[in-house]
């Protein structure tokens, strides 16, 4: 179950994991991030066929990333409309991102709060 990688024209990477008969893909700005995105998609695919499966969150509820940005997981009700996590951008305004966006951006926790 080793991923195969493709370098995309926009400078990002795609990881492809194949476990017959399934194939999942993940895309990110780094190979490691693409691998993590593909593994998350594998979990989502498994949940699709097994609805009682609890999809694990790849991030803690609150953490700081490598750039010093603080992230906080939104409540279940807020996730449907706003996004999975809230963070403060460079202009000191709150912004929101889904887990898929965070994996695409290769957000990595440095410390849990």
What does this structure look like?
This protein has about 110 residues and is α+β, with helices and mostly antiparallel strands. The chain folds into two domains: about 5-50, no CATH class; about 60-100, no CATH class. It is built from three helices and eight strands, in the order βββαββαββαβ. The protein has helices at about 30-50, 75-80, 100-105; strands at about 5, 15-20, 20-30, 60-65, 70-75, 85-90, 95, 110. Strands 7-6-5-4-8 form a five-stranded antiparallel beta sheet. The mean pLDDT is about 90.
Mean pLDDT: 91
The H/E string reads EEEHEEHEEHE
Distance between the termini: 33 Å
Q: Tally the structural domains.
A: 2
Present the secondary structure layout:
Blueprint: E1 4-7, E2 13-19, E3 22-28, H1 31-49, E4 62-65, E5 70-73, H2 76-79, E6 85-88, E7 94-97, H3 99-104, E8 109-112
Antiparallel strand pairs: 1-2, 2-3, 4-5, 4-8, 5-6, 6-7
Structure characteristics:
26% helix; 8 strands; 2 domains; 5-stranded antiparallel beta sheet; 3 helices; alpha+beta; 34% strand; 113 residues
Provide a quick synopsis of the model.
The chain is an alpha+beta fold and about 110 residues long. The strands form two sheets. Strands 7-6-5-4-8 form a five-stranded antiparallel sheet. The chain has a three-stranded antiparallel sheet with strand order 1-2-3. It is built from three helices and eight strands, in the order βββαββαββαβ.
